[in-house]
Design brief:
Layout (H helix, E strand, L loop, with lengths): L8 H17 L10 E5 L3 E4 L2 E5 L12 H14 L7 H5 L2 H13 L4 E5 L2 H12 L5 E5 L4 H10 L2 E5 L4 H10 L6 E6 L11 H10 L3 E5 L14 H5 L7 E5 L9 E5 L1 H10 L1 H4 L6 H16 L2 H20 L10 E7 L1 H13 L2 E2 L2 E2 L9 E6 L6 H18 L3
Parallel strand pairs: 3-12, 5-6, 5-7, 7-8, 8-9
Antiparallel strand pairs: 1-2, 2-3, 4-10, 9-10, 11-14, 13-14
C-alpha cells in the first residue's frame, strides 16, 4: 500500500508521528534511540564518541558489568548454549530457570515464583489471566502502560483511582458489587515521578473489601528496604501483597519479568497464562545473570546504603537550586521543565556537557509537565553527582526554569 496516495485513519496517524519526529529532529532536539557504544567504569558510557556520565540508567545498584554476574552468564552459555529448546511448558525449561524462580521466591519471601520473557508481558498476562468479564480491576492513574494494557485486555470493569489517593480507591471499591472478584493494582515506585505507593493503607482497604492486591516492583527491588528486597521490607509489612510482580531488567541487569506469591497462584499462572505457555524460555545466560544478581544484592548491602546517600545528595542538591523534583523519594528524580521544548533543550545542553539525561514529554506525561527523568545509582561518585547537578543547573538558568 502506498502511504502517499492513501488517506485513512492509519495513514494519518503514521504521518502525524512522522511530522512530530521531524519537528524535533530538524532543530537537533531528538535524543531518543541513541546507541550506547561502550559501557565504562563509574556509571559512564560512550555515546556519539563522547564519554558521558550516565543519568538515565535503571541499573540502580550499578550491577551492570558486575564480575560475578558476568561470570554466571558466561558459565551458563558454556553449559547450555545461547538459546533454549522452546517454550517452558514443553522442552524449554532448564535447571537454571527453576533455580532462578526459587531464588526469586526466597528473595521476595514468597512460596513460589514464575518468570516471563519481559516485564511488559508479565503485567499483560498476569492481569488478563487473573481477571475477566464481570470482574472489577482498580488501577492507580499513574500506573505503567503494561498494567493499563493488561486491565483493558482482561475485559474486566476497569476503574482508575486518583494517584495514591486511598480515599478515592475506597470509594470506588465501596460502589463495586460485593459478589464479584476484585483486584487492586499499583506501582510500588512510580516510574515517571519516583514517589512510593501508600502500601499500608492500600493493604487495609483491600482486606476490608476482599480485593486481591497486585504490586509492580519494577523500580523498588534493590531500592527500597534495608537489604533491597522491596516495598514490603520498606514498610515492614510482609505477606501483605497477593501478587508480587517485578522485572529482571532494571536493578537486576538481565531481561524478563517475574511474579511471586502463593504456590497455588503460581501453579495456576504456569498452566493458564498465555505469555508463559506460548513464549520461548529466557535465554540461559540471562536467567543465570538474574539468578546471580539477586544473590549479589543480599551479599553487598553497602550498595543500598550508597544508593540512599547518592539519592539524598541528588534530590537535595537539585531542590536547593530551585528545581521542582515533584514528590520523588527515590532514585528516579524528575526535573520539571514545563513545556516539551524546554525539556528537549535542557537535554541537549546537558548532553553537550557530557551528562547523559533524557526528556520525558507528552503524552507519556501530561502537557505542561515535561521533565528530565534523571536517575542516580549506587555507582555514581559524589563528585560526579555534583558536576551533573552543576550542568543541569546551568541549563535550567539559561531557560529561566530556575
Amino acid at each position: 500500500m502506498d502511504l502517499h496516495t492513501t488517506d485513512d485513519a492509519v495513514t494519518r496517524r503514521i504521518k502525524a508521528m512522522a511530522d512530530r519526529i521531524s519537528s524535533i529532529k530538524d532543530p537537533g532536539l531528538y535524543f531518543y534511540n541513541q546507541p550506547v557504544q561502550e559501557i565504562l567504569p563509574g556509571m559512564k558510557v560512550r555515546v556519539n564518541g563522547r564519554e558521558m556520565g550516565m543519568y538515565a540508567s535503571y541499573s540502580y545498584l550499578g550491577l551492570v558489568n558486575h564480575p560475578r554476574i558476568n561470570e554466571a552468564a558466561k558459565k551458563a552459555v558454556d553449559k547450555f548454549g545461547t538459546g533454549t529448546n522452546g517454550v517452558r511448558t514443553l522442552a524449554g525449561t532448564l535447571t537454571i530457570h527453576n533455580e532462578l524462580e526459587e531464588t526469586i521466591a526466597n528473595f521476595k519471601h514468597s512460596e513460589s515464583a514464575l518468570t516471563y520473557s519481559s516485564g511488559y508481558a508479565t503485567n499483560l498476562t498476569v492481569v488478563s489471566t487473573m481477571m475477566g468479564r464481570g470482574d472489577y480491576v482498580f488501577s492507580d492513574k499513574l500506573n505503567h502502560a503494561s498494567i493499563v494494557d493488561g486491565c483493558l485486555m482482561s475485559g474486566a470493569e476497569f476503574r482508575r483511582f486518583r494517584h495514591n489517593d486511598m480515599e478515592h480507591l475506597e470509594g470506588l471499591l465501596k460502589n463495586a458489587p460485593s459478589d464479584v472478584a476484585k483486584m487492586v493494582i499499583a506501582d510500588s515506585v512510580f516510574s515517571m515521578d519516583g514517589d512510593i505507593i501508600d502500601l499500608p493503607k492500600m493493604v487495609e482497604i483491600c482486606k476490608k473489601y476482599k480485593a486481591w492486591l497486585m504490586i509492580d516492583e519494577a523500580h523498588s527491588v534493590g531500592v527500597l528496604g534495608k537489604t533491597g528486597t522491596g516495598i514490603e521490607e520498606h514498610f515492614d509489612l510482609y505477606d501483605a501483597i497477593d501478587i508480587k510482580m517485578g522485572t529482571l531488567s532494571k536493578t537486576i541487569p538481565s531481561v524478563g519479568g517475574y511474579v511471586a506469591g502463593k504456590k497455588e497462584l503460581i501453579e495456576y499462572l504456569r498452566h493458564a497464562s498465555r505469555a508463559y505457555i506460548f513464549s520461548a524460555a529466557l535465554p540461559p545466560a540471562q536467567a543465570a545473570a538474574a539468578n546471580e544478581a539477586f544473590k549479589v544484592i543480599l551479599d553487598e548491602p553497602e550498595r543500598i546504603e550508597k544508593l540512599n546517600l547518592n539519592t539524598k545528595q541528588f534530590i537535595g542538591g537539585l531542590k536547593s537550586m530551585g528545581f521542582d523534583t515533584m514528590l520523588t523519594e527515590t532514585a528516579i528524580v524528575p526535573v520539571l521543565c514545563g513545556e516539551d521544548e524546554k525539556a528537549f533543550i535542557m537535554t541537549r545542553d546537558a548532553q553537550l556537557n557530557d551528562v547523559f539525561v533524557l526528556p520525558v514529554v507528552s503524552p507519556a506525561v501530561p502537557e505542561g509537565l515535561a521533565r528530565l527523568r534523571a536517575t542516580v545509582t549506587a555507582g555514581h561518585d559524589p563528585s560526579e553527582i555534583e558536576r551533573a547537578m552543576d550542568v543541569i543547573g546551568e541549563a535550567g538558568k539559561k531557560l529561566g526554569i530556575i
